Amino acid sequence: MTKSQGWLVLLAGAAFALSACSAATGSDSAPTAGGVDAARIAAAAPGEWLSTGRTYDEQRFSPLEKLNQSNVAGLGLAWFADLDTARGQEATPLMIDGVLYVSTAWSMVKAYDARTGKPLWSYDPQVPRETLVKACCDAVNRGVAAWGDRLFVGTLDGRLIALDRRTGKPVWSVVTLDQKGNGTITGAPRVINGMVMIGNGGAEFGARGYVTAYDAATGKQRWRFYTVPAQPGKENEPAYLKTAAQTWAGEWWKQGGGGTVWDAMAYDPALDLLYIGVGNGSPWNHLYRSQGKGDNLYLSSIVAIHAKTGDYAWHYQTTPGDSWDFTATQHIILADVTIDGKPRKVLMQAPKNGFFYVLDRTDGKLISAKNFVPTNWATDIDMKTGRPIETPEARYYKTGKPFIGSPGATGAHSWHPMAFDPKSGLVFIPANLAAFPYIPDPAWKPAKLGFNVGVDMGKAAMPAIPAVRNGALAATTGALIAWDPVAQKERWRVSYKGPWNGGLLATGGGVVFQGNATGEFAAYATADGRKLWSFPAQTGVVAAPISYELDGEQYVAVLAGWGGVWALAPGVLIDKSGPARNISRLLVFKVGGKATLPPAPPLEKLTLDPPASTATPQVIAAGGERFGRFCGACHGDAAVGGSLVPDLRRSGALNDAATWQQIVHGGALKDNGMVSFAPVMSADAIETVRQYVIARANEDKALEQGGGAVRKAK
Fold first, then answer.
1. I need a labelling partner for 502 at 20 to 30 A (CA). Which of 116, 331, 568, 579 fits?
2. Residues spanned by CATH 2.140.10.10 within the chain?
3. What is the pLDDT of residues 239-266, one digit of tens each?
4. Residues 6+ apart with CB under 8 A from 143
């Protein structure tokens, strides 16, 4: 990576909710289902997919071999199902007893006959749409869990719901967090020995992280494990949190602390250890979170918990004193491998910070670590201490100077699942190569709405200067990396023109499957990355595929639907990755499949026709600061919008100050997720935002017409 990678602003989308309505449409013809229990999950029948990672070790490896390098070119679409939402699709389906179960955006759940695609039932938890403002990265959901005759789904507004697997009707529902706060759920639950495990998101909005276990039969809470300490003396905390409190300073609890457990989990039944990935701090900036002092346990850590009791076992912190949104919530894989001639029980993770970690999962000791992408915030990992060897300029709050971090806030690897092939010993990583400008904000204060990250998002916006934009575009790419975790070396890679490509599936037939941001779903040879087959999905694919077998035929299934933070926040860089459209579908393939998709609708792009910009530079600058803090997460860096929400530069409301006020101040579109921002901006302040967007629209109109840039970089 080069220095020109800078000026990528990646925030996060918007989502969360309030109440607990429910609605389901069922089919009495749904197949009779057998119960899912620990023995069945442990047996891991090759033809089924019973848990989000297929097995508790989360390897996302299908042992099925009927589909292999000799016949994968004959794959065709067996059937597809259109989904009733146009937000991002990130879920991994389950296949149990001939039925595919999948969650979609807005936490809805659907069941299909896995052979034919016949819809069996659909459930909508009716998440209030104004919840969207509480979530960082779109109204997504990453999957359901199964136990007994039930399915379990976490909803964006913080509920955990048990559904009857045959009918889709709710059995019980519990609220897992304070719905008046800013927590959300987007991750898939896990079920261990009759307990449903779920965490939540919201660290950018002032949440305190924890993971909770609920009784699968009744919904009763069994235990709760907090990841950051509370205000000293206020709670009778266990020893592990008292130890953690010694690594914090100031009054961190007033902003929640962060450390949300919004995605990764894995489980070792032999050790009865649940492994969780812990997120970033609240706010990102270490100075405002903890006076720039301490490691801030257990932020950005892998933590092992005794699953039966919820007691702490061990931890390893990947990024002490995190100040870059370097979460450790990324996919965790468990495996038994041979290292230096000895069998080792290992845990593997490639978190946001760009290093690939191999730990002994029995005690958390670091075995090895190596960067899998270029990193400029740290040069290496000290194997004696396990700590990163940081570069001085990375601590931007100490230097007072902007730091163009590589990787950036979306991470070298985000939530998109990896896969591990035990035959080849390779881990397959969906990598992002994208930087982020961390700019100190000496006047920062927390606010009720918007991202509370502690950096200056307004000054970080992409300038309307072709050379800067083109440099950032050229430096922002993605890759599928085949990584040898024992040698800590890259074995091969597939390069993509942009980041935010899909999760992985490895198979026993020597084939790796991945969708990408340009709308292609493809198969690659495990050994060398040769492309063996591809299918035009018509939309970006970010979810991970699965494989299953019925009647002697092997199928591959994947959710397609462009979305998530990259479809919302990075402005001009959005076009580097995707086709800028969302067509949400479940796609299912088999050799000889004959189904075809209908033609994709044409991409429509409204012309830039803004009113003249008459505001003073001071008003425009003030509006830009506010836009960066409160609006950019959904409406794009520098007001360059993506496909999931209106591009404000082309909005009709831009020409009418009264309409703009009705929407932004009055909350006229709250049912679409656009709530009132009156709690954080006056009407006059909101007008400065409109003037900023008008100025940006005129700048980009001049660029489109060949007039060059009309403002200077800040």
1. 116
2. 3-443+486-591
3. 999 999 999 999 999 999 999 999 999 9
4. 52, 91, 92, 93, 94, 102, 103, 188
